[in-house]
Fold these 4 entries.
Entry 1:
Amino acid sequence: MAAASCTVWDSVLELTKSAQVKNCDPQLWAIQLSSNLNSAGVDLPSVELAHFLVSHICFDNHLPITWKFLEKAISFNLVPPLLVLALLSTRVVPNRQLHPAAYRLYMELVKRHAFSFSALIAAPNHQLIMKSVDDVVNLSQIFGEQLCETGILLVEFVFSIMWQLLDASLDDEGLLELSAEKNSRWLPRREVMEIDGHGNFSEKRNEHHEGLHKAFTLGKLHRAIATACCAFCSFEELKTRNTRCFSAVDT
């Protein structure tokens, strides 16, 4: 079984690398990939494929075509969108100064897919997806809630993603140090420091700030704050009422 699984993901890697080199149409890549995974009996949307694609992109294959592959995989329901965002949040956000283009693309995916609740609820393996999301961003540990209800997990996830983006924006402007805690629980730190030449770093730094000014206009920042506040209020309401609106799904 392990050898067969290895063969499946080896073929996925081969297909993706070949399509990447040929600059293949992302839709054709997704159709072929979907056919291969269905033939191999892989449950879709696939948790393993989400991990594979994010690991492939970050950052050895951080190219426009691979990001298009990822977006098409989400559109074709090959990967769980919330798990993809969770994985990217732990890799892209901590490296946003070194990879500003990846950060802008990540925020675009957040805008498109952060509220893809129906996709998660309708997935036959939604319990596995929920656990995978929790394993990546540690929601149950942060909020002190056991992973039991889909509704609570969704609110916690949206709140954590929105708050992470807010803290990242404040940190980039040097404002996070003025807070009482000085450090953010939502911002994972890079474990390995990448060293660039002084000139290259300055160039990337300037590009990063230019990208931030384009991506985070005042209006977008206000909307992000409003979304985070609404998510927090919804979370508190769910806890207070101990709602069971998703109990039929979870049983």
Entry 2:
Amino acid sequence: MKLYRFVKTYAITMNIKKIPHYISVIILSLLLYSCSKDDKPNSPPIDSNKPKMKIPIVVHVVNYAPDPFEISDEKIKSQIEVLNKDFRKLNDDWQKTPNIFIDLVADIQIEFYLATTAPDGTPTTGIIRNESDLISGDGKSLDPNPVIEDLPLYFTEKGGQDAWPKDKYLNIWIADFIDRNGEIGFAGYANPPGSDYRIDGVVIDPRVFGLLPPLDENHTLGRTATHEIGHWLNLIHTYGKNGACENTPENGDYVDDTPSQFASSHGKPTFPRVSCGSIDMTMNYMDYSDDDSMYMFTKGQKERMWALFAQGGLRRKLFENCRLN
């Protein structure tokens, strides 16, 4: 109504006795829709706190037939929750990071979920089960160039389970590592970027997976999966793999903001621990501390992970299939 009065007043001022209807419409439209650049709303900024991709996981439960564990769906789902907290910096314990490292803690901006669609397009829970006499060692070889067909854990016809396409899924095989009465040695391992498509993924003992029993007493927070998926995303241990301090391609982790560290950590390290002339980052997920003593990735590690998804990167196709707009 005020706009109409404005038009009418304008007509009187200009000595226009009658305003054609179409002229009124044009004037009103200009008044309603014209505005200066300063009046236009700005496009919302890109939220750097949002996830950039969500990766579907298929969990291949290869349960040891002579004495199978109870590996419930709830146990598996609890591990997915851990991954989403650890990779998004949503775990409460990251705030325990010492002040010297606190500004380096990174939100990796990657999330995970149990796959809902199988490679053939049919619905799935993302959890595939079978019982077998295979153990995790049946997926690992000391030979740097193994014959893939000699690793039965990755073949359904040999008692294991076939991998799903690595450009669309993260494969996790759950398989026993050692006898039920001994200590867990290697709790898990990863087949890193560039591995044969038939073995691409990680292998984890059920006693270090998720938050529900069965669990090893030092691995109750699901951090083994966080560690191994870090390897799957191209991270290397933060300590010198050759027992040396030099951060070189032969010995280092290719990350600038993780201090040089002489050896791996175990148990619950007391802070500060010094080696190589600096304080060790024993709380990094890529060390070997107990679950309750590791709780952070660094910004440099984030850069190394995301380099996989760049043009020409070894996991570029995965990014294209899993990216979020």
Entry 3:
Amino acid sequence: MPRGRGSGKIRRAPPPMERPMRGRPGDARHYAALDLGTNNCRLLIARPQGSGFAVVDAFSRIVRLGEGLATSGRLSDTAIERTIAALRICAEKLKRRHVILARSVATEACRQASNGAEFIERVYRETGIALDIITAEEEARLAVLGCHALLEPGDGPALVFDIGGGSTELVLVDSRGEVPRILDWHSARWGVVSLTEASGVAATVEERAALYANMRARVAESFAPFAKRLRTPRGTRRLLGTSGTVTTLASVHLGLAAYDRSVVDGLIVPAPAMREVSQRIAGMSMAERSQVPCIGSERADLVVAGCAILETILDLWPAERLGIADRGIREGILRRLINGRIL
């Protein structure tokens, strides 16, 4: 049976809090998915199209909701204010687009924070958005549902991963059939925010190398229970990543002057090239990383942790290539809302 962090048999998440909303008669049917993570707030609004959907509006902002959570155990007042400001924009978009059904989810930061439930209540009072704090299992399922179409064809199980702000989800899937079957999963405690805050900063080249090695060791330890359960697959190993880390590093690999989803989403990159980019970025100073296109000052402090997590995943599942997905939880939610529960 599939297992996850905490061991034991996998448990089904409770039914999602799908919130009907008032659309005007005659409006096109618009659905919405909102993903509030430890680092980002993301919204997609879409209408059904064929067997899928077409995006009609979107929003994404780095809010750093989990900033300081590792040390305080609470969501800070400053982080809450930043996040609610972003959610007010989302609420206005939901209203303007006359969304008929929406689901809004919160992940690791709200799962861990002692004031997570209080924050959820305040969000509803001030924005009308009903956030559902989902389990790590549900988070993994939604990510797979949203991005599995980008898996390379092949036999045997594939590994899908999502590097978040407060955790990293690893999901082993059997991709035969229209919808993948989850064989095993693991939620590791380290994401780019939590790992960065736990690791500190480094000034010299030597200190940066030591810090990076320490990051990788922490991540490897958190992956250990999952690593023990993995078996060498038949055929070629397939690997697909969905996260800001992999899309950013893929952009750096391509030398893009600015992020371009149409180029990055669905890209297949040689794994050694992603290692080279990761190690090069990890060796840079904060100021140097800030000057790299597609990283900039907003991601300069967190990207090294993402590099460490990615390299450790490549150690765990040494595939020759890495698939890049700029899609995940929101797309998984939309597929469920439009097509019914299919994973």
Entry 4:
Amino acid sequence: MGNLVAEDDLATATATAKPRVLCLHGFRTSGEIMRKQVLEKWPEAVTSRLDLVFADAPFPAEGKSDVEGIFAPPYYEWFQFDKAFKEYRNFDECLNYIEEFMIQHGPFDGLMGFSQGAILSAALPGMQAKGVALTRVPKLKFVMIIGGAKFASPVVAEMAYSEKISCPSLHFLGELDFLRPHGEVLLESYEEPVVIHHPKGHTVPRLLDEKSLETAMSFLQRIEQVVVGSDLSIEGIEAASAA
């Protein structure tokens, strides 16, 4: 009987739960731009199952944005980097900013990132596991990576990818994306990554074909169970402590 009750609780909670997701936008864009990219391209069947929060990066763009003329300013960047993508400026400040945002507006269950935001989102679970980032917020339960890659700095790579990342992950790889080879290398750092391939370039893709939508919905169902299971465990511990 106890197991049946637990299963009923899980089913009920899963039906009503919405994983809360912090969304990290691309280089020299904004939270509002990413909001439009996602909500205008993805079907409501996907977006309605997530509580999406779109943050602006901490630093105003220091140069021209690739989306000028397509999306209105202001534009922001998470950190600055050299041409080899091995030296970073304001990186620690960026990590602190994200953590403070998560404390003030969370709790968050997972991250979703595009481009520069995807590189950050993909690295943070490993860095959190090492105790070098996001030490004051709950453990990340999943990530969604759109047009991502790995940090090229050996120091950051050691912190982020030296051990396989067990956090559930969904990766979007574009056939024409200049970062696709780097995104494929990133997959090797994750245990059992889920991948959606699309024919476009470096962009938030539409989820139009049946296979992509089915993959996305299956991943959402999985993370809903992870999030709800974690919440029920916490409630059980709190109830036991109060008894």
